[in-house]
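dumping this here before i forget
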Amino acid sequence: MNPVKAQCKRCGNFVPSDQFRLHFEYRQMVCPGCFKGKAVAKDEKPKKVEPPRPPGWDADDDYLEKMSRLKKQEQNVQFKKIPGTDQVQCTCMKCKYQFKYDPFRKRPRVCPYCSEEIPQMKTFSML
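structure:
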């Protein structure tokens, strides 16, 4: 009787399903070749390729690029003053969840719904 063949998620080879074993490092069922380390993985995590920098790019340009990204992120978070309290209404830009934020204690540090970090509120003109 021919056993059912299944595809290994690590290397992509088709192997009888009764030969699969649980690998402690990959945390998934793999074929005997992957279990022994002989098979090559089809897709190890692709490395992020950065575009080449123009000539004359230096540390100052890296700093300016980083600050530009931080400023855009700061503008994305919306704070609205809650009348009669020291707290502000914050809207998470990742999940659009609205919650109260205390700028003096800086609590909560992350969005209660999606755990996205809240950027520092630099303008206290609302308070």
